Amino acid sequence: MRDLPCGDARVYLELEIRRVRCRRCGAVKRERLDFLADNPFYTKRFAYYVGRRCRSATIKDVAEELHLDWHTVKELDKQYMRAQLARAGTPGPRRIGIDEISIRKRHTYRIVVSDLDRQRPIWFGGDDRSEASMAQFYTWLGQKKSQRIKLALMDMWKAFRNATRTHAPQAAILFDKFHVMRHLGEALDKVRKAEYARLSGKDRRFIKGQKYTLLSNRENLTLEGRQALKTLLAANKRLNTAYLLKESFGQLWDYQSEGWARRFFDNWRIALKWQRLKPYEEFAEMIERHWDGIAAYCNPDNKVSLGFVEGLNNKIRVIQRRAYGLRDEEYLRLKILTCVLPPL
Q1: What CATH code is carried by the domain that includes residue 126?
Q2: Quick check: helix, strand or coil at residue 304?
């Protein structure tokens, strides 16, 4: 073994591992070679191959296929995903989407922020879904980039709204249509439960087991499901009214003028009178409280693709389900941030 100063590119090769002895401190050190992975027993090319395999398979399956240890595959996959993020670069979003995900039971949440223009998640973190956790994103992004944000798409969670108004006051706040319609679906289900409790005997047979038939979009139902829905609505007048009100409410997002959108909502709310649909009345009050974030859709500059937001949520659920839940939060973070990035 030759004596070489630290950092000298000329080294002694022994057993395919390059080692050098520093003349200054006498310690034996291993030279960092660009083609080696973080684990010196594997090259970067092999680590990237493992990472590409892990995009469509579990760690266990890849480990068995390549005859590697489970932990080795996981660390190689982490290196691959970090390289993906490094190539993607530092984001400077103009329009962002904010959502929370549950990472384990007992209401343990983390926040996911996406760049809606580039259609990729850019931040995963926080300790919960509080205002302080949301503020961590803006601190990470920096004041200069935060002030460039023009639009923030989110659900109606107050903490997200407050943090955005504090750190990016120039941004227009837009409430996610899917979350709004989910609240309306929950109101419809409460009506269904109330009707089931009110009736007895044979009168219940049309309602029993029809929850998802009632909540699904008509075009997504099978021929048998559509027939069951038709029978249900014909048998129960109150559910028929609630269903028609739910279907018509989606028209709110088609208006190009806030004045016309407001007129539609006022008429929709008037239609609730004398219908004895308490959950719908509560839903209408919620919309009234959050009207500014819903009416913002009428501005042509605020038109965003909501399909990406819903698609990302589905991808995250698939990642969690495929791994039966991820205990390593850093690994979950990398999986989410790279789930739509191109492979290396």
Answers
A1: 3.30.420.10
A2: coil
